[in-house]
Amino acid sequence: MKEKDQSNNTEKLNADQLQELRELILGLDKPALQRMQKLMADPHEFAIEISDLLPFSIRKLMEKGSINIADLLPFFEDMIQESIGKNPQRLANLLFPIMGPAIRKAVSEDLKRLIESLNHGLESGLSPKHLKWRLQALFSNKSYLEIMLSHAYLYQVKHVFLIHRDTALLLHHEKADHVANIEADMIASMLSAITDFVKDSFHSNEQDGVDSIKIGETNLWLEQGPYAIIAAVVEGNPPPDLRIELKEALEAVHYNHRPELLNFDGETEIFEHTSKFLKPCLIKEKKGNGKKTPVFVLILLVIILAGLGYWIYQRIQTQNAYAAAKELFFSESGYYLTKTERQNGKLRIFGLKDDFATEPYELLSSNQLAIDQFDFVLRPFISLDSLIIVRRAEALLSTPESVRLAFEKATLKVSGNCNTEWKDRLEKQYNRVWGVLGLDTSELTVSDETVRDLSWIVDDIMQHKFVFDFNELEMNEEQTDRFNKLTQSANLLDEFNRLNKKQYIILVQSFTSKAGNFAANQRVANIRAQTFLSLLKEAGVPDHLLETRVINTEELLKPEEVRSVSFVVEEK
Question: What would the pLDDT profile of 280-295 be if each residue is shown by its tens digit?
């Protein structure tokens, strides 16, 4: 038993001595050695262990010059390309917080410029100058916006400042020729103070800032970048596109001088080279010395005013014609209007019309209203107007010309001279006339004597027509024979009037045209009419039965031959 205990003590002593010997040789205790063995056996654990040391190691290698960015760039490009190919949505999710605000800001800037351009255009878009530009755009390959931007803005950029964003120190200053110097450092300090005030007072973001300050006619426009700010002092009314020039200059400065801006220590000499980016921003556009008489604009205004005046005149004439037509058909016997409406440039008239009412286009013509301005949608109905009842009775009863009809208090009053046969027909058929309830023949005389029939005279006189050549006034042989037949019928008109108790006359109509010499045409036409009048008188036609009238063919609804003479028998 004692020997066994001595053996265990010897093994324990040997193990402790071995551990102490291991620590002296390796400098590691047993747990540390076990951890190292685990790292060597498990690559994942080893990668976790060195992940904190790898960035520091790469930085040290770059400082020593062992590797550079050009060596690492292909590795990272391949890695990013492979990652995008495997899971593009992951990269989109990573970039979303960055790209969203950037896109919104870009859209906001574009919309702001668009609204400013529209405001400038709308403020003076109806001035004579802008009307001229619109016509210029119409007859050229340029748009109205291009022409407007090339003429509308009168301004001058006097100073351009490049300011360090973090320190608010002036990096460089450019001014236009013949412009007085200003305290550039004071301007830079003022802008910094204003920007800080806006951020503190309105709790705005770092990326937000003041973009313009207006003092009277002078504007101070600012464009801000990550490390620098460009400020432009502009006099007048600058266009929105000036901001594009400032942005491009600011981007050029950041691209070419990014290390200097990042490591700025107060030395500004290095930024003298930014002059080539700032000078193009000194844009100006000035008015001409003298004013030219805007002849073109005046002519354009006269044309526009004349066109507007003619349009207003036509509108008034059309309105008057519509009003006159409505009043005419509302008051005309045999019509009942339901509504009127405008459609396709015409007045459509809806309603009812009796078959014995005057035709609508005939009514319009007789009242000197243009028939092409109206359209009718009329349904038939039976009117009880007195005039329509008389017309209906004359048609249904075949009333002779020697008889006169009148309607009053539902009674048909008949006067004049007729034969027994017609009176019998009247008494049997008068109640067939709509609206007639009674008959009054107290003023009607009955005579069965044979009366000479001269009803053919009117049609015979009106069928004669004489056409002449240019500047010809005398009739040829054929026309003379026809004229003799005319005088035979015309001499019977007086007897026709006496037998039928009429007062018909012969109207000598001489037709001419407004084309050419209007006064000469009228004179020749009047001579023709007077010549026929004299010839008819010489043939025995009574003077009280003759009248003359000169008519222009352009005023007629139906075409008529120019340089012609015709005859109309009408009641005086």
Answer: 888 876 555 445 556 7
CA dihedral 413, 414, 420, 424 (to 10 degrees): -30
Determine how β-strand 170-175 pairs with β-strand 212-215.
Answer: unpaired
Does residue 425 contact residue 397 with C-beta atoms inside 8 Å? yes
Q: Could you give the CA distance from residue 529 to residue 531 in angstroms, rounded to a whole number? A: 5
pLDDT in tens, 115-146: 566 555 555 555 566 677 777 777 776 666 65
b/e string for 12-29 if b means 16 or more Cβ within 10 A? eeeeeeeeeeeeeeeeee
- Do residues 155 and 245 make contact, with C-beta atoms less than 8 angstroms apart? no
d(CA 128, CA 210): 36
Cα gap 191→213, rounded to integer Å: 10
On whether the CB atoms of residues 419 and 446 are closer than 8 A, the answer is yes
DSSP 333-385: TTEEEEEEEEETTEEEEEEEE-TTSPPHHHHHHHTT--GGGEEEEEEE-----
Determine the topology of domain 297-380 in CATH: GMP Synthetase; Chain A, domain 3 (3.30.300)
CB 196 within 8 A of CB 166: no
Query: Could you tell me which residues come within 8 angstroms of residue 189 by beta carbon, excluding any fewer than 6 positions away?
Result: 168
CA 227/CA 167 separation, integer angstroms: 10
Answer yes or no: CATH 3.20.20.190 is held by domain 386-446: no
Place of tokens 């929105």: 240
Look at residue 259 in the predicted model and tell me its pLDDT: 86
SS3 457: helix
Give the helix ranges, DSSP H, for 27-87: 30-41, 43-51, 54-64, 69-86
Domain extents for the chain? 153-285, 297-380, 386-446, 456-571
In degrees and rounded to multiples of 5, residue 343 shows phi and psi of -155, 125
Task: Please report, as a single letter, which amino acid is at residue 87.
Answer: N
**Entry pTM:** 0.32
